[in-house]
Fold this sequence. Notes:
32% helix; 12% strand; 9 strands; TIM Barrel; 12 helices; single chain; alpha/beta
Amino acid sequence: MQWLFLLYSRFFDNILISFMNNRIKQNNLKTPFDIVENCSPLWKKIFAEAVRDPAELCRRLEISNEHVDLNSNFPMLVPEPFLQRIKPKDPLDPLLLQVLPRKEESAVSPDFTTDPLGENGHLSPEGTLSKYHGRSLIVTGKACSIHCRFCFRRHLPLPEIEENSISSGSGIHPEIIAARFKADPTLHEVILSGGDPLMLSDRQLQDLIFHLDQVPGIRRIRIHTRMPIIIPQRLTENLLSLLSNHKRYGKRAKMIVVLHVNHPNELDSGVSRSIEELMDSGCILLSQTVLLRQVNDSLPVLAELFERLIDLGVMPYYLHQLDRVAGAAHFEVSPEEGCDLITKLRRLLPGYAVPRYVREIPGEPGKVVLK
Ligand code: SF4
């Protein structure tokens, strides 16, 4: 019986693929394998030239490195477009605090662990993680456009993705993942997370999205990314058509992009333009923010951030309570303070502009809303 089912599903898949290929030819669309990818696009150059030495960052910003950890195990990474938004001579700049390794990171706090969400060891060999009903997460690699000091995955050994070898390299394997997802009728949404999924090359992303679009049950592909905020140059024409809900060939699933943004100063004119382009491509846009001590734990800052996001067409989705990862204790805001801020935000802003204040608890079937 099972082999008959497999035979049938393979037969219908082939019909679907040949139908899509005909449509591609008739409409002169890009096939999955003829994407014109610039070998060294500007965003890769920007990433390669990011500042990685904390002493150099301090020099550039004219601040003392007295409280800076110059040899952190979680290396610093700050690309130029983000650096340009940090105010010089201000050691407490809210963007700087998110990226500069400080000596406080080595303070030992017993409740802060290397794997606060208990993810280690739960990744499948293909790089997937099934945490929630009906959804599956693909960890696309460990590369990020920036290193946030509070990242809950900062200690996790995530799989490496080799450039241009998503199918054959040591990373994730779209065909195997798609076959696995096809066999799970309960699955409706795939979440691409990382690292940052937009660190994959266009070709890698195209291969992955193409295969996910072949899975009949998948209705939504959700991409969690900080890239459009950190290096807005990443949103090339190629990438926008790959993500587009209007132009994507063979589109079956709706594309949702969740932008990680923590402070209104992150939203300069370049970032605003990149968000508008994403909007034009028809993606559903949501945001997520981590509540961080000294960065955004104030009513005016959060109110301005959420209003600016709404103005750009992004719905504030989550305000996260910090995950208790080792090295990030100094960023923690208590849940009581967080609830107080949310209550005040509700009085100040329309309901749709106030995100859900949530915390993730290992083993829980979903995020827990803090009230
Ligand atoms: S962008 Fe996200 S995954 Fe990358 S370092 Fe920051 S918090 Fe971690």
